[in-house]
Amino acid sequence: MTLSDTLINTLFDGRYRIMRKLGSGGMADVYLAEDEELGRRVAIKILNDKYATDDQFIERFRREAKNAAGLSHPNIVSIYDRGEAEGTYYIAMEYLDGRSLKELVVARCWRRCGSRTGRASSTATSSRTTSWRMRTVV
Questions:
Q1: pTM of this prediction?
Q2: Cβ atoms 3, 46 nearer than 8 A
Q3: What residues have CB less than 8 Å from 15, skipping those under 6 apart?
Q4: How far is CA 23 from CA 38, 94, 98, 130, in A?
Q5: Domain that holds residue 37
Q6: Measured CA distances, 83 to 16, 70, 71, 112, 126 (Å)
């Protein structure tokens, strides 16, 4: 059983109540969590178990958090916290409720592509988009 299988309804790092999984990517899983110290919902990105002991991936993950925390723009989520807990690393960030990137791509393609939607939908499904809601660096 992996760490991600056991996180739902638990308190992560003594602070984040994990509510549900929002999505997965190549190196991390993203969850909706309640920050019990500040009383707000956050998206918490947790490095996959298989990379938690790889120094190169850990450094890349830390660098991602540091670089994103240095940005301030309406189209980029705010970084609230980063840390190490339960044998892995995480980034806590602003949670935005709404449609996922995948849902937006499919909807826009439906309007623009017409009969080619099936192909575009398949492409969107196989792309590395996730179902978690966040603004992205444009």
A1: 0.73
A2: yes
A3: 35, 36, 37
A4: 24, 15, 14, 5
A5: 3-94
A6: 12, 16, 19, 42, 31
Nearest to 27, CA basis, from 77, 88, 76: 88
- Residue among 31, 30, 37 nearest 14 (CA): 37
Type of residue found at 8: I
Please report whether residue 66 resides in a domain. Answer: yes
CA–centroid distance for 131 within its chain: 8
Q: How many domains does the chain have?
A: 1
Rounded Cα distance between 113 and 132, Å, is 25
Q: How far is C-alpha 14 from the geometric centre of its chain's CA atoms?
A: 20
**How does pLDDT run along the chain (138 residues), one tens digit per residue?**
455 568 999 999 999 999 999 988 888 999 999 999 999 999 999 999 899 999 999 999 999 999 999 999 888 899 999 999 999 999 999 999 888 777 888 888 877 776 554 554 444 444 344 444 444 443
